[in-house]
Amino acid sequence: MRLFPIFLKVKSRPCLVVGSGPIGEGKARGLLERGATVCIVGPRATETVREWAKKGKVVWHRRSYKPSDLASMFLVVVATSSRKTNEHVYREAVRRRVLCNVVDDPAHCDFYYGAIVRRGPLQIAISTSGRSPALAQRLKRELGDQFGPDFGAWIEELGRARRRLRATIKDPKRRQQSLHRLVSREEYAEFVRSKAMKGRVQSVKKISPKR
Question: What average pLDDT does the chain have?
Fold first, then answer.
């Protein structure tokens, strides 16, 4: 099956996690970090989920799943140990047209979690369509090595440079050429060297004795 690769905006959208154990906690954390409004359903929960609920970060229903839990939800992640429950949630989600992911069950997923390499604004998502998560993790490590920790700061600088060029170069062709020149490997290497030099200068200033 060919997948349609997209990045979803979940900020302020209602999202449901069925299962309040360690796996459900991890899925809920990812949604919270991206600004989703998270509801968790499960009779027992990890200490972290309990703490989130106390602080009002999530709504936790301390009970088993009910079909009505899916009302008005944007998406649902199912992370229970009951195959029967997982399949029941998936069927109801399909009926209600709610995007659904049943953890470790590709046949009952409308979307998959990719292995993510994140460097500031840059996000690279790797998917094997559920065939081999281990391979996705290996590729994540390799790409993480390729795109070093300075990459995020460089992209932020590229954003500032893009805004300057759009304001100063009116000819679209010239502007495009300049933008493509900025993203070359040579420019990135120069950015890293410049950043390292600034860091050394700052270090010298900190340890230099005052006169």
Answer: 91
